[in-house]
Input
Amino acid sequence: MRIPGGARVGVPGGLGLAGLVVVLLLQLLGGDGSGTSFGVDPRFGDQVQAPGGTPIPASQDPERDLKDFSVYVFTDVQRTWEETFARQRTPYEHAKLVLYRGGVSTGCGSASSAVGPFYCPADRRVYLDLSFYDDMASQLQASGDFAWAYVIAHEMGHHVQEQLGTSAQVQSLQRRNPGDANELSVRLELQADCYA
Output
């Protein structure tokens, strides 16, 4: 697979440590599906809203630092990909970021905390459940800003896969070869790890 910049990316056949962490993260965490979502579009500023659509005053938001950090990393990763695509004279479509807790409605359907962070190609949004940050520290011993930044960069890797057509190619291969569907999914996850 060739990515913008001319580099070739190979995807190993085994489930590497990073891929294993992603799979474990997705399987270990649960949620009740009833939560709060905070829409954030970094291109237009940090506009966080409460469930009724009323803004939460920054001074009263206990997750302000985590939200600010998430937006910063998301914006930085997106800028990097935008520059990488531009060097190849390839158009880049911006993703958007949605921060939520508990559950959220997406272009791909409803999701609970059990899903963890994910990318929805239907609406080109990265969805980050803020409770996952706490779960990473308490359940997975993967605390800290670097681990959270890696999660964000991984989900942006899925956005890049969508733009390059890699996701569509994998889905086509999975339909033609159902017995290889799991291995192909693992390879897609590992490539998103590589992009991160």
Notes: Residues 175 and 181 are 8 Å apart (CA to CA). Residues 21-159 form one domain. Confidence is low (pLDDT under 50) at residues 1-38, 41-47.
